[in-house]
Specification:
Length: about 210
Amino acid sequence: MTTLIDRVNRGDPAILVGTQLLAKGHHFPDVTLVAILDIDNAFYSTDYRALERLGQLILQVGGRAGRAEKPGRVIIQTEFASQPLLKKLIDEGYSAFAKEILKERHLQQLPPYHFHAFIRAEANTAQLAQDFLESIITKETYTATVDLLGPIPALMEKKAGKFRYLIILASKDRNSLRRELSKRIALAEQSKLTRKVRWSVDVDPVDLF
């Protein structure tokens, strides 16, 4: 890696192909063209931070081009050049882009405006996973400030021979969420189905579903 960087800094002809590692911390004064390939997966990711990270990546990679006196150019490969957030970033800059993302998160009840916790269950049958989750959400009244969704199938419902389901708890208030989650965990530990499923708790999940 060091030898390659030395060659680039000497001005030798070079095409650098790499991951996000190339986007950070390097100063290549003779690099004038940067291409970012296949960004479209960020538009469909279950990670709600994917678009935010895409914006940061475009900004960082774009900063590799034209760092000295030579002008730089950035090419982005996408099937969705008219995607509103992408256009916002290109036309108005990162600040406007970030404000729009925050507005969408507020409407969708995502962090930092809402907090989430998942209780996941895996079992040999879909019915068993659902029955286990049902057993921990029907025996207690809910905290009024906490919303609950499920049981619902995971995005990949069956994996390695196991059926995967989850319930989602969401609230504007983290303390209310913690109290409600504690009640559900206690019920899970007492459930007659506990030994027949594998279950886990995910607080502040990154991948939704």
